[in-house]
C-alpha cells in the first residue's frame, strides 16, 4: 500500500495496536511490521484486507473515505469508529467479505 493511502486513510495507531510514534515511523517507512509482533501483524493484515475489499467494492480514494466516514445501517455505526477496536475491525472486514461474495 502506498504511503499516501496510509495517510489518506487517517491511519490511527489504535487500529493496528501500535503507538503514535510507531505509526509515524511506519508512514515514514522507518518502521516495519513483523510477524514476530503477533497482534499488530494480525491487525495489519485485517487492515490491508479491509482496504483491498473496499477498493474492489467502491474503488479507491474519495469513495472509500466516504464509506468509512458515513454511518452504516447494517453495522449500526461509522466503519471508521468501529475500527478503533480489534473486534470492530473484524466486524467491518466480515461485513465487506459478505458483501464481496454477492458481487
TrEMBL record:
InterPro entries: Xre/MbcA/ParS-like_toxin-bd (IPR024467). Residues 53-100 form the Antitoxin Xre/MbcA/ParS-like toxin-binding domain. Pfam families: Xre_MbcA_ParS_C. This is Antitoxin Xre/MbcA/ParS-like toxin-binding domain-containing protein.
Amino acid at each position: 500500500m502506498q504511503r499516501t493511502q496510509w495517510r489518506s486513510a487517517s491511519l490511527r495507531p489504535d487500529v493496528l495496536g501500535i503507538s503514535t510514534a510507531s505509526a509515524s515511523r511506519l508512514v515514514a517507512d522507518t518502521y516495519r511490521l513483523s510477524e514476530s509482533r503477533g497482534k499488530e501483524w494480525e491487525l495489519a493484515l485485517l487492515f490491508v484486507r479491509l482496504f483491498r475489499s473496499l477498493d474492489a467494492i467502491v474503488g479507491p480514494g474519495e469513495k472509500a473515505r466516504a464509506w468509512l466516514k458515513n454511518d452504516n445501517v447494517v453495522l449500526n455505526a461509522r466503519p471508521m469508529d468501529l475500527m478503533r477496536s480489534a473486534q470492530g475491525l473484524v466486524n467491518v472486514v466480515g461485513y465487506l467479505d459478505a458483501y464481496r461474495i454477492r458481487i
